[in-house]
Target: Cu-processing system ATP-binding protein
Amino acid sequence: MTSTVEIRNVVKRFGKVEAVRDVSFSLPEGETVALVGHNGAGKTTLMKLMLGLIRPTSGSITVLGDDPAAGQFEARRRLGYLPESVSFNAALTGRETLAFYARLKREPTTAVQPLLDRVGLSHAASRRVGTYSKGMRQRLGLAQALLGEPRVLLLDEPTTGLDPALRHSFYEIVEELRGRGATVLLSSHALTELEERAGRVIIMNRGIKVADGTLDELRRIARLPTRIRLKVSDVGLANVPNWLGPVEGWRRVNGHMVEIDASAESKIEVLRRATNEGAPVEDLDVIPPTLDELYAHFLLSQEAAR
Ligand SMILES: Nc1ncnc2c1ncn2[C@@H]1O[C@H](COP(=O)(O)OP(=O)(O)OP(=O)(O)O)[C@@H](O)[C@H]1O
Model:
């Protein structure tokens, strides 16, 4: 698969602060990658490096075949960016704002109306941005980032402050672009919503990349237990070891539920016993480790190794 972004041993220092410490990764075409980490982990710094807004202290960065820190950066036209706090000139209308950005990106202004339609802002296109709600400004920000059909889209905390319906349509638009082969890098604290959206997750802590992989890969590495929740009849609840066998880490959750923390090795066996003929199980749920849990695990492991 072709990479659009290559980050090799990148270090970025601001005076004494080491914002990015020897980070390497590459981003392929047609993938959505989530960049997660606490405040100050280095997420925005990485995006600014990819945009060529700042230069690495050492290491190399290539975006769409170019060095973003080199003066003339042709690839920037194919790079979309939605900053963390998007701010526009309050006196311009939505249409004027987007036309302004289209000229900056050397895109025809005919691109403006379809984009306003796409992000659902046509009805407010002639209103001043100063009158827009937070969600409307964010959608205008997305439209600006989508100008020129970017091949790399960098979204810094894009859904903060959006209601669930807006989030949904936001991700739909981004997914469409990814489907046409774009690379999408998405930084966020909202781990639950990333779980379904990102094919791959990069976890940063204090400038260091502490984990990088698909959710399945991270689950395999972390070896966190899968939670198996069984709805059990009254009789079954009274004699769990009899039908479940010698399983470690089980507990009663309430009057009709048993929860088991099953390791990767024991998971299938637990399910087999729970679904055996005669087992008093009425229903079951299998809950793999969430991104929240994986994130906490990798952060704690790295902190412990310091
Ligand atoms: N221009 C700058 N001058 C000095 N320090 C900076 C500068 N930009 C970033 N830093 C520092 O670099 C570190 C990483 O900051 P960065 O903005 O990349 O974090 P982040 O992961 O995006 O955090 P957040 O989730 O809060 O947006 C922080 O300690 C920050 O204070």
